[in-house]
Design goal:
Elements (H helix, E strand, L loop, with lengths): L4 E3 H9 L7 E4 L3 H6 L6 E2 L6 H12 L7 E4 L11 H10 L5 E5 L4 H4 L14
Parallel strand pairs: 1-5, 2-3, 2-4, 4-5
């Protein structure tokens, strides 16, 4: 639903502001795309359309406070068909997280984030 989405412009402002209390950004797509370019500070979980990705997500989230603000994103493909964001969202909701949002990327990370000039990191920083 719309109240569970965050727009790219909003998240870009947040990650660019050193005084902002940033949400924990979790990348739930393929590792190869993460290494090419990812949102600064994002933690790579792996594709949550696969059992290992969901297991990694559960392990990562286990230590977090349930009121922590989390933003999930993938951006591997168009929003309507992304196999990763919905399973990740449902998993975190099922674990009791109340402040989970999904970055709305209608096309993909390249078109909806990188080409708009929003900040990126490359490599395996997290």
């Amino acid at each position: 639903t719309a109240d569970r989405l965050v727009e790219a412009e909003q998240l870009a402002r947040s990650v660019s502001d050193p005084n902002s209390q940033n949400p924990l950004v979790l990348y739930v797509g393929p590792a190869v795309l993460y290494r090419r370019a990812h949102i600064p500070g994002a933690k790579s979980i792996g594709p949550t359309s696969e059992p290992d990705g969901l297991k990694n997500l559960g392990s990562e989230a286990q230590t977090l406070g349930r009121d922590r603000e989390l933003v999930l994103y993938c951006g591997c493909c168009p929003w309507e068909v992304c196999p990763n964001v919905r399973p990740a969202f449902r998993t975190l909701q099922g674990m009791g997280f109340k402040r989970v949002k999904v970055l709305y990327l209608p096309h993909n990370l390249t078109q909806d984030w990188i080409k708009k000039g929003f900040p990126i990191q490359k490599g395996e920083s997290h």
